[in-house]
Design brief:
Elements (H helix, E strand, L loop, with lengths): L17 H36 L3 H4 L1 H24 L1 H20 L4 H29 L3 H32 L4 H4 L1 H15 L14 H19 L6 H24 L13 H30 L5 H8 L1 H21 L1 H19 L8 H29 L6 H36 L4 H30 L6
Length: 478
């Protein structure tokens, strides 16, 4: 899934010569490919990582969440820092951090080491992703060229999803799960060398302009604590979980108060006065929670219930991201132009609901062709329709001077939705399975019922996204 990142607010640099711009586009896409790869390549390797390092069922989600939470929590801050110190500097520094963290993940031999390295990857991913789209817009100011460049960028994101799932299975089965991270080393080094050579230097506004570092600390801590409370809910008593949730709410409240009073807030609260922008971000949290839960739980269903190996699981997931990429490039813009973003969004969300409802029936003796592939294609088609339409509605709700910040907010809620959905659904599945095992159920049957519960809850979440979108996102016509 391709993230939307903060667009520039300053006047773009003059266009570079064609060769330099095309080379720069390749570099930016290579950096994006690494972060997209990393978000998908881990999914198929989860059982191997769990077996090797001894993760619990709920704790296994932290292999993903340790990356997503710093990524989402830092996007607003590092996007602002990119404006202050220069986007090229932020991008190249992010590549270096991400590549080094990938090596640490690849040599990890303990749970704590892997999770810490994954968190460092999240920091590098945020540094890289927060400035990419802004650099693209600056390099391609002419509307038609800009549209083509962003289309290429979006296609790379979708291709990265397909490649990541496939490579995750192939590398884990043929070599070892450590290689899903070490594969980033040659990509990162090559992208870093090219970035230094071909990206046009830019001068930032200067650190003297300042950024809201306390606000960034508060929102990052609040996000991390929220997901920690959900992930560990099955391993602790209810009182402790509620106390952690209350502390997270307190941190979010402190962040809101800080933004209301800060001289240079990280997030201007006036943005939430827009019905379209606020509604689109709320819908996105629910929609992305559904899709991330599908990717994680779906891969586990194929392996632990249907008995697929890592390579076959990766291959089984290929139709979804390929379909998303093809439909986004070939149809989404024309469909939105003809029918309007609101109608296309509702149709896409309806397809996601239908796909999740079908998947919630996946039985213990299921078949890929009849029980997995149809919902897979429904989900892919629905997401390809819904995501561009939702993005357009969100940005239509922002004033021109707030467009960059609105993009950063939209990117952040995408990551938040993925983190919370993954955490909640993995806990539900694990808790249901453990309860059935305690009552004497057979392992595979209990596992299948746990996944069915997660899929049913994800269906309800998708229905919530559809209802909310229908209620609040109809754009008033002049």
């Amino acid at each position: 899934m391709t993230a939307i990142v903060e667009t520039p607010t300053r006047t773009p640099h003059p266009p570079q010569r064609t060769y330099s711009r095309q080379a720069s586009l390749v570099v930016l896409c290579a950096g994006t490919l690494m972060t997209i790869l990393d978000g998908n390549i881990v999914t198929v390797a989860m059982p191997a990582i769990q077996s090797d390092l001894g993760f619990s069922g709920p704790g296994l989600a932290w292999v993903v969440n340790a990356y997503l939470i710093p990524f989402g929590g830092l996007l607003l801050l590092v996007g602002r820092l990119g404006d202050l110190i220069g986007r090229k500097r932020m991008f190249t520094a992010g590549l270096a951090v991400f590549t080094a963290a990938s090596v640490l993940c690849g040599v990890a031999t303990a749970q704590g080491m892997l999770i810490a390295a994954r968190a460092l990857q999240g920091v590098g991913g945020a540094m890289t992703s927060a400035v990419v789209l802004g650099m693209l817009v600056a390099m391609f100011p002419e509307p038609r060229e800009q549209a083509r460049a962003i289309a290429v960028f979006s296609a790379v994101g979708a291709a990265g999803g397909a490649l990541g799932t496939f490579l995750g299975g192939a590398l884990t089965e043929l070599l070892d799960w450590h290689w899903i991270f070490l594969i980033n080393l040659p990509i990162g080094i090559g992208a870093l060398i090219m970035a230094v050579r071909v990206l046009e230097p830019d001068r930032g506004a200067g650190l003297g302009k300042g950024a809201d570092y306390p606000g960034a600390a508060l929102v990052t801590a609040a996000l991390m604590l929220t997901v920690y409370a959900i992930v560990g809910a099955g391993d602790r008593d209810l009182t402790t979980t509620l106390l952690l949730a209350a502390l997270a709410l307190t941190l979010f409240t402190a962040f809101t108060l800080r933004q209301a009073r800060a001289t240079r807030p990280l997030l201007r609260l006036r943005l939430f006065g827009s019905r379209l922008l606020s509604g689109a971000n709320a819908v996105q949290i629910l929609m992305i929670a559904t899709m991330y839960g599908f990717q994680f739980i779906g891969a586990l269903y194929l392996q632990r219930v249907l008995g697929y190996g890592e390579l076959l699981t990766g291959t089984a997931f290929l139709p979804a991201p390929v379909a998303i990429g093809v439909l986004m490039l070939g149809l989404s813009a024309r469909t939105v132009g003809r029918f309007g973003a609101y109608r296309v969004l509702l149709a896409g969300l309806a397809l996601i609901v239908a796909g999740m409802a079908l998947l919630s029936r996946a039985p213990v003796d299921g078949s890929y062709v009849t029980d997995v592939l149809p919902p897979l294609l429904l989900l892919a088609t629905g997401f390809a329709a819904a995501m561009p339409a939702l993005t357009g509605l969100a940005m239509a709700g922002a004033r021109a001077q707030d467009a960059g910040l609105a993009s950063g907010l939209f990117n952040t809620t995408q990551v938040v939705g993925g983190s919370l959905g993954l955490a909640a659904l993995s806990v539900l599945a694990a808790s249901r399975t453990e309860g059935l095992l305690d009552r004497g159920a057979e392992l595979v049957a209990a596992t299948a019922e746990g996944y069915q519960l997660a899929f049913r809850v994800a269906t309800v979440v998708a229905v919530g996204a559809l209802v909310l979108a229908a209620a609040v996102l109809r754009k008033r016509q002049n």
